[in-house]
Design a protein that fits this description.
Elements: H1 3-29, H2 38-60, H3 70-92, H4 97-148
Helix pairs in contact: 1-2, 3-4
Length: 149
């Protein structure tokens, strides 16, 4: 985790702890009317504490680095591109609308599935490339620290 992200997560956890402490001290200072059932109050306090804990955990989690999945992107772009090409080709050939639509739907489905698999391959290639790059960086840093000693 980067230094900045770590400091942001640390400050967020402190602010959540401060909020919880302030809430607790303010709540203890209140006088509870006798007509309020203590069990209902306990349930409400548990829910409030759970919400504070949820917010605290949310800020402690490292940022998600993965973006969109490449398989979905490839499937969408290839499928839509082939669909547009199929429609234009049908119009240039002066075919019937029903024939163009039928061909376009079939081509769209086939190339969308093909694009999905191409995207899966691309995603694995990118992941392997990044992993190899990170391993090289770690290996270089280890050899640099060993050489310094």
């Amino acid at each position: 985790m980067s230094e900045q992200a770590h400091s942001l997560a640390h400050s967020a956890s402190h602010s959540a702890e401060e909020t919880a402490a302030a809430f607790q001290s303010q709540f203890e200072a209140l006088e509870i009317p006798p007509n309020i059932d203590p069990q209902l109050l306990a349930i409400w306090l548990e829910r409030e504490q759970a919400e504070i804990d949820r917010k605290k955990r949310k800020h402690e989690q490292p940022p998600k680095l993965s973006g969109r999945k490449l398989n979905r992107l490839f499937a969408a772009y290839i499928g839509i591109t082939v669909m547009c090409i199929s429609i234009m080709l049908g119009l240039v050939q002066h075919r019937e609308a029903s024939s163009i639509l039928q061909t376009t739907c079939i081509v769209f489905l086939i190339y969308t599935v093909a694009g999905f698999f191409v995207g899966m391959i691309a995603e694995r290639c990118v992941a392997d490339s990044v992993e190899t790059l990170l391993r090289d960086i770690v290996r270089r840093s280890r050899t640099d620290t060993d050489a310094d000693e």
